[in-house]
Design brief:
With 381 residues, the chain is α/β, with parallel strands linked by helices. It folds into two domains: 46-193, no CATH class; 200-374, no CATH class. It contains 15 helices and nine strands. α9 (210-222) packs across α10 and α13 runs antiparallel to α14 (337-354).
C-alpha cells in the first residue's frame, strides 16, 4: 500500500527545494521540511447556495452550460431523476453541484457545470414539466405546472401551489471555482469522478492534449446535437462517450495508415488511450486530410444518391463508423463519391458475411483492415 506521502504526490504537484550544503544536520532537517511547496494549486473554491428556481432560470436562460466536452451524457433513468426531486423536497442530502464561473467584461456571469449535470437536469425536467414527480408512498404522478393552452390533451395532476413554492425555494448547495482554465475544469472533473462509474470511453474525453483537443473539435463539428454524423442522420450508437472514442479511433487509424508501408496495424483501446496522451501537436497537413475525409463522409450520409448505403442495415456499428472514415481517408483523392459509397456498401456486406456480430474486437477489426487496404475504387465485389 502506498504511503501517505506517495498518495499525496499522485494528486498534487509537489516539489522539494532545499540547500544541499547546510551548516549541520539539525538545520538540514529544518531546511528540507520548510521548503516543501505545493505547486499549481487552484484558488479556493467558494461555497454558496442557489434556490432550485434560480438554478432552473439560469439553465433556461443559457447562463449555465451543462454540456462541456468532458461531461457525460444524461444517463440517469427516470426513477433516479424522480428520487433526486424527492430528496430535495424532503431535505435529504444531495452532493454539491460544482461550477466553473467566468465573469465577462459587462459584469455578467456564465457557469459551466463540472459536476452535478444529472441533478441539474432532473431539476430542469421537473420544473419544465418534462418529467413528472411521484411523491413517496403515493401512486399519483404530479406535474409541476399546467402547461395546457386548451382543453385538449391528457389531464395531469398538478402539484399544489404551496408545494411548487416550497420546491422553488429549496436551497441547493453549490461550489464555485472562479476564472479557472478548461484544463483545470477537466482535472476537477476527473478527481471528483474517481469513485464514480464512468465508462472507459467517457474517461477518454477528460484527456487534455493537442490530439484530444483535435478530436473534440471534430466532434463539435460533426457529432454534436444535429451534426451530420449524429443520429438520426446516421443511425449508430453515440452515447456514454462512444462518439468520442470512435472518432478518435478512426483518426488514430488514419495516422497509422499514413505511416504504414502497406496495411496499418490494428488499434485497441489501450493504444488509443496512449495515442491521445501524447503531448506533441497534430501536424497541420494531417489535420487538413482528416477534415477533408470527414467532410466527404458527412456529404455521403446526407446525399440522396449515396446516403442509402448507410441504411442498408438496421444500424451502423461503432467499428463500421471507424472504418468508413478510414476507407474515405485512404481513397478520397482517387475515388468518386459513387465509388466510395459502393465501397462502403461492399465493406458492410463483407464483414457481415464473415462475422455474425460486428463487434469491437481484434478478429472483426482484422477483417475490416484487410478489406479497406485491399479495396480499390471501381471494385464491384
Amino acid at each position: 500500500m502506498a504511503s501517505d506521502d506517495e498518495y499525496l504526490s499522485e494528486l498534487t504537484d509537489i516539489e522539494s527545494e532545499y540547500d544541499e550544503s547546510p551548516a549541520n544536520g539539525k538545520k538540514a532537517g529544518k531546511a528540507k521540511a520548510s521548503t516543501w511547496k505545493i505547486r499549481m494549486s487552484l484558488k479556493p473554491a467558494r461555497a454558496t447556495t442557489y434556490s432550485a428556481q434560480a438554478l432552473y432560470d439560469q439553465i433556461h436562460g443559457g447562463d449555465v452550460n451543462l454540456e462541456p466536452p468532458y461531461q457525460r451524457d444524461v444517463v440517469w433513468p427516470e426513477t433516479k431523476q424522480i428520487m433526486v426531486i424527492d430528496s430535495i423536497f424532503r431535505n435529504f442530502y444531495i452532493p454539491p453541484v460544482i461550477f466553473s464561473v467566468q465573469v465577462h467584461d459587462d459584469g455578467s456571469e456564465t457557469k459551466t457545470c463540472i459536476d452535478g449535470k444529472q441533478r441539474l437536469t432532473s431539476i430542469w425536467k421537473c420544473v419544465s414539466n418534462v418529467q413528472s414527480f411521484i411523491p413517496k408512498l403515493a401512486d399519483v404522478k404530479l406535474y409541476f405546472k399546467d402547461t395546457k393552452t386548451s382543453g385538449r390533451g391528457p389531464k395531469h395532476e398538478i402539484m399544489p401551489e404551496r408545494y411548487r413554492k416550497v420546491f422553488a425555494n429549496k436551497q441547493i448547495v453549490c461550489v464555485e471555482y472562479h476564472e479557472i482554465s478548461e484544463d483545470d475544469e477537466r482535472e476537477v472533473f476527473q478527481r471528483v469522478q474517481l469513485g464514480m462509474a464512468l465508462t472507459p470511453a467517457e474517461k477518454l474525453q477528460v484527456t487534455s492534449t493537442p490530439r484530444a483537443a483535435f478530436v473534440r473539435s471534430m466532434l463539435g463539428e460533426y457529432l454534436r446535437e444535429d451534426g451530420p454524423l449524429c443520429p438520426p442522420n446516421l443511425n449508430w450508437k453515440t452515447d456514454r462517450g462512444g462518439d468520442f472514442r470512435c472518432l478518435g479511433h478512426s483518426i488514430h487509424m488514419m495516422e497509422l495508415a499514413s505511416s504504414a508501408s502497406r496495411k496499418p496495424p490494428q488499434s485497441d483501446f489501450k493504444q488509443l488511450e496512449k495515442w491521445l496522451s501524447f503531448k506533441d501537436e497534430v501536424p497541420e497537413s494531417f489535420q487538413k486530410s482528416v477534415k477533408e475525409a470527414f467532410k466527404i463522409f458527412a456529404s455521403l450520409v446526407s446525399s440522396d444518391n449515396h446516403g442509402t448505403v448507410f441504411k442498408k442495415y438496421k444500424k451502423v456499428s461503432p467499428l463500421e463508423f471507424i472504418f468508413v472514415g478510414l476507407l474515405v481517408y485512404l481513397n478520397k483523392d482517387k475515388a468518386t463519391k459513387r465509388e466510395l459509397a459502393d465501397g462502403i456498401g461492399l465493406m458492410f456486406d463483407h464483414v457481415r458475411e464473415e462475422h455474425t456480430d460486428v463487434r469491437m474486437n481484434n478478429r472483426v477489426q482484422k477483417t475490416m483492415v484487410n478489406f479497406v487496404t485491399d479495396w480499390t475504387p471501381g471494385t464491384k465485389k
